[in-house]
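Hello forum,

I keep getting stuck at the same step: I have a sequence, I want structure tokens, and every attempt I make locally crashes halfway through. Rather than fight my setup again tonight, could one of you with a working pipeline run this one for me? It's a single chain of 223 residues.
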Amino acid sequence: MDSSEKIINKLTQKAAAKQEVYRVCKSFFDLLKEVISELSEELNQEVSPIDKHVEIKHTDKGEFEIEFKFSGDILIFHMHSNTFSFDKSHQIWNSSYVKEDEYRAYCGVINVYNFLSDSFKYNRVNDLGYLIGRVFINKDKHFFTDGNGRMSFLHNDFQNDTLNKDTLKNIVQELMLHAMDFELITPPYKDVQVVSLHQIKEMSQNMKLKTAKKLGFKFRNEK
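Reply #2:
Ran it on my machine without issues. Output:
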């Protein structure tokens, strides 16, 4: 096979497979937005009569991003526009499903990040968020998840699991539970007892404390 034939082969097979992955992943991301909208409305109806101060809302941030806020947490769902494969050491290559068609290993990915709501409310740009989950989807609508907590094992049968609306809702709910159980931890007293005047002025004027659930809070120039 000469170079021209190789190029044509990759364009008609590999590139076409990647384009199909993108279309499938994008359709599920649009469905995910619908799921979040419905879940937001459903939870508001249940929670508001009990405590009207618990805020639950979603914000569509564009073609590839949506924010879901509930009480003190925000989940940011972000779909990457590119298609990915996996390192040859990844277990996905051991599947007979992938061995039958190597293009089944190409996946789109939806990343889910957890931030504190106050990080956005007070524009604390130095605050940290965490990637708590990822959803990988291929051209056949097969998928698997990885991440923290139950996301690491909840959906790991790539060969047999296919994505649908109910499963997306289940994934969002699991991510919410993980975020709410992932507590803000105060740092040891000795780590934050010395404060400079400059740091206090920054804190007062610009809310420049770096806050994250694992770190508690720390000044931005601390290592």
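The chain has six helices and eight strands. If your local run keeps crashing, start a new thread with the error log.
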